[in-house]
Every structure is written in C-alpha cells, then in structure tokens.
Amino acid sequence: MRLRFTLKTAFRGLRANKSRSALTILGIVIGITAIILVMSVGEGAEQLILDQIRGLGSRTIIVEPGRQPKGPSDFVEIFTDSLKPRDVAAILQPANVQGVARVSPAVAVAATIVYGTETKRITMRGTDPFISEIMNLAVAEGSFFTDEDVRRRASVVVIGTKVGEELFGADAAVGQKVKIKGKTFRVVGVLKEKGAGLIDIDQMAFVPYTTAQEYLLGINHFHAIMVQAQTEALVPRVARDIELTLRESHNITDPDKDDFHVTTQADAMASIGIVSTILTVLLTSVAAISLVVGGIGIMNIMLVAVTERTREIGLRKAVGATGGDIMQQFLLESILLTGTGGVVGIALGAMFSGIASLVLRYAMGLQWGYALPLSAVMLGVGVSTLVGVVFGLYPASQAARKNPIEALRYE
Prior knowledge:
The protein is an alpha+beta fold. The chain has 15 helices and ten strands. Strands 2-3-8-5-7-6 form a six-stranded mixed barrel.
C-alpha cells in the first residue's frame, strides 16, 4: 500500500467524524498553546530583566552585604551591616584596586512621602550624583543633587515623574517642600519618564546617601556599593581586587565565610538566564500535563475507531493489505490528529503571547517586547508529533493484529 494512498485513507477516516476529531485534539491544542505562551512570556521577562541590567552599564560592579545567595534563607544576609565607609575608602585606594573610575555607595529606604494632604508610599535610594550616570537618569525639571549636597547632608530630593504627578498634579514640583519620615525635604529635580521595568524609576525618589543614613535610617553602613571600572576589559580584575581588598578589610581568610558578594553585569545576566531557564522548564512541565491527558484521549478515541472499523480492517486484509499497512494507516491518523492540534496550538499560543505582551506593555506600563522563540515552535511541533506516535502506537498495533476472517464476521 503506497504512502499517498494511506494518507488519503487516513484523511478520509478523520473527515468521517469531524466533530469527534476536533474534540479529540482539544487537549493537544490547550497543551501546545500553554507551552508556547509560557516560553514566550518567559523569554519576554528574561529580555526585560536583561535590558534593565544592561542599562547599568557593562563596566558596573555591584558589591552587596552578605554572602552570595544560594537559597531563600541566604537572602536574609543582604540586610547585614558588613559594608562600611572604610570599605569605600579601601576600594578607592589605587594600591588596593586599580582601574576604578568611580565608587557610589547606596542605601535603600522604604518610606512615605507627604505633600499637604497627598501621600505616596515609595522606595527611596540614598546615593550620590554618580547614580544618574550609572542608571542613565535624565532630569526633566530642575537638576540632580550635587556632591556638595552629599557632603553637607542636605535635605534635598529628586523624584520620579509618577511621584511628581501624584503629589503635585499639573503644578511645578521643583522648589516644593515634602516630608519624608517627618523630615522636610526640598524637591530639586524631577526625572524624565523611564517606564516600568525591573526597577521602576518613575515611582522612586533619590536623596544623598549621607542624609538618608543620618536622618532617615540612623545607620552607618551601606546596602550596596556600585563601582565603575575604567574600561570593560578591566572589570574582571577590578572585581577580583575588590574581593581581596574587602577580605583583608574584614579580616576574612576563608572565602566561604565572606560577608559580602561582588557581582558584575556578566554574572548577573548569567544568573538571570539560569533562573529564567529553570522557571520556564518547570512551568512548561506543568503545561505538558495537558498533553498527557490529550494523548490518553487520542488513544481512547483511536481504540474506539479500531473497533468501529473492524470490518473495514478485515476487508483490506482480505484484498492483500498487510498488518504493517494497517498499522501505518492508524498511526498516520493519530499523528495527523496531534499534528493538527500542534499547528492550531502554535497559532493560538503566538496570538495569546502577542496579546499578553500588549497588555503588559500598555496596560501595565512595562517595557515588554513580544518574543516567540523558534525553540518553542519546534518544541510544539516535535511534542505534538511525538504524542501522536506514542499514544497512537498501541491502537495501531491492535488494528494490525486483527484476524481478517474474524474481522469480516464482526457485526
């Protein structure tokens, strides 16, 4: 029996029960759609985070307190007070670390900013003017605070555009007085809109780190130290020198007992890639459960079809069809069912992924790009075909083993 004739016969068998065939592939369609959607959204999320990290610049090195997090319990260590002013001074010494262009210490403050009767809960960052270069912050009104403001512990604040809109509306924000944790601050600048992302700059405010330490937190340590190397090529060496310098400063001889960790942008991007891949695999595995359910449904329907067409099988064997021909026909029917489900699932997954990216970009204000990985499409095609083979093999073999004489007698 030629393959073309077998295909025509398989198509004819599926067309004879269109409604049943459509319902049969529903599980495959849902499973493939879910896989495409998960992989597409995962790719978009990864690109969003990586773009935010790249925005910090390839020369930026971040030093944070606590050892490198390796599990959920390790994240508690980021609140330790291991990074002190002496560490900044040590990093700035050319004898300790060569190739440093600038060092910017920072602290984080969760606070409520108040203007008249308007209040807004925000995340503040105590830093120095260099943060505007590192994070590419442009000022729409006024100006960023200065190094002199840092030295004087000035009560000045630079706010994100959405903070300004919610507090002041259409009124000018620069020069206005606001209260943060009961202390009065003067608004000296409003940032240009950046759009939401891993870090929503539009919802943040920036003050001199010295002011934040003394008046808002009452601490003498940092939550992070951002270091910029003179060139990108120097980043690995600068990062290594920082580690050695801080170990000496903290009297640490065993690297496993570090009370800090140093991260370059390359390290951060690699970590994000690994985490994103793991999450995508886990979510895809959950979505694949529906493929198993769909596959079982196809096996069940194919067994029913074999029973219904017993006389047809007997007749074909009587006129010369071999068991292999019969098996090939029913296996092709199963693959055609799942293959059709895979194509429909890929199309629906691509459509829903596009809708999701539009919602995330415009409704939620995220800088989200549409992504449809080729690997997702290939996986959809491959998995749907594999399901057809695996779950169609048993019904096809049952059809091939039927005795032609008994099959012809079947009522």
